Structure formats: C-alpha cells, structure tokens
Amino acid sequence: MPRLYPFKALRPHADFIDHVTAKSSDFTRKDDLVREIQENPYSFHHVTKSYLRHTGSYQSPEKFLPFALNYIRSMKNSGVLVKEMEDSFYYYEQVLENGDTFSGIIALYSVEDYRNNKIKRHEEIRPNRLQYLVEMFKTAKVLGEPTLLAFKGSLSFDEFSKDTLYSFSSPDGKTHRVSKIADPDEIKKLSNKFEKIDSLYIADGHHRSASAEKFNQSTLNYKNDKTMCFVVAEDQLKISPFHRLIKPISSIDKDSLILRLSENFNIVKSPDSVYDVIEKETFGLYIDKEWYRLKYKSNAGGLLDVEIIEKEIIKNVFGINDSRTDSQIAFHPYTKGEKELCSLIDNDIYKIAITNKPCDFSDVRRISDDNKTLPPKSTYIEPKLRSGMIIQEF
Fold first, then answer.
1. Do residues 162 and 179 lie in contact, with contact meaning Cβ atoms separated by under 8 Å?
2. Is the peptide bond before 383 cis (omega within 30 degrees of 0)?
3. What angle do CA 101, 110, 24 make, to 5 degrees?
4. Distance between CA atoms of 238 and 148, rounded to whole angstroms?
5. Percent of the chain at pLDDT above 70?
6. What's the chain look like in SS3?
7. Which of 57, 134, 243, 312 is the most buried (most CB within 10 A)?
8. Which residue, among 42, 123, 98, 117, has the nearest Cα to 75 in the 3D structure?
9. Which distant-in-sequence residues (6+ apart) come within 8 Å of 7 by Cβ?
C-alpha cells in the first residue's frame, strides 16, 4: 500500500499569505491574470503563469521560466517565503461560503508508488501540459499545488496536536486554515493510520503527478523521488461535471445536428434549462439560444455518461478523435455557471454546448481499479487549493 511522508515545506510568511497565494484554476479572464502579475510582485502566479510575461511564449519555456526561478530566489531572500526547519505533516481545512468543509493532510508520496500504480489514476494526460510542468520543475525547482488524493473510508485528525500557521479568507469567499503536525511521535502515529488505507486515488492533479514522475525519471540530480499531495476521505469530495463546448470546423445547422443526434438519442425541445442534469444517460444540448433534452436510446453497457458523450457525440458526430488536443472542443466547469455557458454560445465563441450529470467517485474508483481511463475533464472535483500556500522544493 502507498506510504505518505512528512516534509519541510517552503511557505509564505504569515504577513504575506494574502499576497502570495493565488487561485489555481477557473480564471474568468486572461486580462485579470496579466493585471495581477503586473500589480502584485508577491503572487505565486509569477511561477505558475510566468508565460504571460511574454506574448506567444507558452511553447518556449526558456523565455519565461527564468522569471519563475528569479521569483523563488527573490521571495526567499526577502523573507516572503520561509522554509520549515522540521519535517511535518500539514493539516489543511477549507470552508466554502455555503458552509461545505473539506479537511485532510498535505504530505509527500513516493514517485515509485505512482509508477507502480499504487497511486491510481483515471485520466489521460495532455502532452503539452505535461512537458510544460516538467520544464517548470527543472527550472524553478518547486511544486506549489498538491495532487488531490482520495481514499475510501474516514480518518479523524482531532486527536493530533497541531500548531496553527494560517487562517485567512481568499477573494472567492473561501476560508483556509493550515496547521502543522511536527512532533515525531504524532507523525509516527499519523503515518500508522495512513498505512491502513488500501489505495489512494487521484481526484485532481493528474498532470502534476505525471510530470513529477517524468521529472524524476529524466533528472536524477535532485531530491525528487517524492511529490506533494493533499489526502482526503472520498466522502468529503464535491464532484461536479465539466460541460462540453464545441465549435466545429465545418458549420452545421441546428436541424441537421438534431437529425444526426436522433440516431442515438431521443430528443425533445425543453422550455426549461438543462444545465443541471440529474438523470443518468440524459444530456442537455444548447444551441441557437434553445435547450434540448437528449435521452440515450441504447443500452449503455456499463459506459459512464462522459463516455457516451465521447463516443456518440464527440467522435461519431463531430469527428473529434482526441478531445485532449483538438481545438474544436473546450470544457466548461459547472461552477462557472449557466449564464457564462449560454453567453459563450450566444456570442458565437462556441456553437454548441453539451451538458451532463457528474460521475460518482465510485465510478472513478472502478475505472482506476480496472486500469482504464476516462475522457479528459470527466470530473470537476473540489476542494481546489490555492497555489503557493504550501510549497515543495526539489
């Protein structure tokens, strides 16, 4: 079974926690990111989004990654980032505005366990994202956001002594609390509890995990045989869908599309929104400012809803053979809301939206246990941690 390890984190000084930590995903506009990098010299986006300093440089990491390294050096030299002196586990708790709470432990896991599939995954990797992260690790020598790992069962942390490091609120309304567990006896006791967990599953962060493994494989002169994770019980996860946005290369009118889709789906025009889908094998279609409800005709044969979309719509209707890399398709996190999705279609940024019910994590476990993968962006899973809150140095 996989093991977890304490480590000496690099982290923001408490006086700078609001300035350093940065939202890790779901950015509304690129301009907002650029403005943050221009106006906030402390933001960890100087590491994760350093490519925004040079127009068109995403594919040329040698142009922008030196800025990421300079940021780390400067923040350490000025005391904005401080290094822990003792190996610790880090207890993290996140509270959403609606009261939903997530809690777990930030630690390290072995790259070898990932390589041997003791850390189980369910999603395919986009090659360009993988290579970008490997180059960032090589240059900046840090990882600022852990892979989210889940396990079946429960684990209480109330019995452990914790030293508070932070308690702060971020602009998105979330409350973040971080404490450390540093006493050697406490570390041993917590490690023993973790060793009783049968399997760990990647809930979010497949690219970070794969990049850490490739970095370890290709660069042996760093202490990089372990990588950072945030471990939570499965029942704490909040799972929402990604909806599909499509702008096909060849134009297709609504009537022709509906006729083509009707080969595999029963289709009815819906007077109400189908943004929230609650039934399995049921999907929403938004096109020309109208909603349609699609019900799969065939026996799904064990296929999950995201697999039905991939097979019957993405590939068979639009001819998109690799939705990881094809520019005709994009993914809309459920949390961004119906208004934004409809706006993207109404303003002809995309032509079509397909909505679906989210997977259950039991489905994710089954796929992982069978050594299979789901289509990209099959699950939108919370909690999302802020970048730069706890940092691993290689």
1. yes
2. yes
3. 40
4. 12
5. 96
6. CCCEECECCEEECHHHHHHHCECCCCCCCHHHHHHHHHHCCCCCHHHHCHHHHCCCCCCCHHHHHHHHHHHHHHHHHCCCEEECCCCEEEEEEEECCCCCEEEEEEEEEEHHHHHCCCEECCECCCHHHHHHHHHHHHHHCEECCCEEEEECCCCCCCCCCCEEEEEEECCCCCEEEEEEECCHHHHHHHHHHHCCCCCEEEEECHHHHHHHHHHHHHCCCCCCCEEEEEEEEHHHCEEECEEEEECCCCCCCHHHHHHHHCCCEEEEEECCCCCCCCCCCEEEEEECCEEEEEEECCCCCCCCHHHHHHHHHHHCCCCCCCCCCCCCEEEEEHHHCHHHHHHHHHCCCCCEEEEECCCCHHHHHHHHHCCCCECCCCCEEECCCCECCCEEEC
7. 243
8. 42
9. 87, 88, 107, 108, 226, 228, 392
* Tokens linked to 308: 């039905």
Check residue 55 and give its pLDDT. 58
pTM for the predicted model, two decimal places = 0.91
- Kindly report, residue by residue over 247-276, the tens digit of the pLDDT: 988 888 899 999 999 999 999 999 999 999
Return d(Cα 242, Cα 129) in angstroms, integer. Answer: 19
Are residues 212 and 141 in contact, defined by beta-carbon separation less than 8 angstroms? Answer: no
Report which residue type is found at 206: H
Q: Are 106 and 205 in contact (CB under 8 A)?
A: no
Q: How many of the other CB atoms lie within 10 Å of CB of 269?
A: 10
CB distance 190 to 106 below 8 Å: no
Among candidate residues 323, 321, 324, 353, the one with its CA nearest the CA of residue 336: 353
Close Cβ partners of 322 (under 8 Å, ≥ 6 residues apart): none
Of 133, 150, 118, the C-alpha closest to 230 is 150
Phi, psi of 151 (to 5 degrees): -135, 155
Confidence band, pLDDT 50/70/90 cuts, at residue 37 = confident
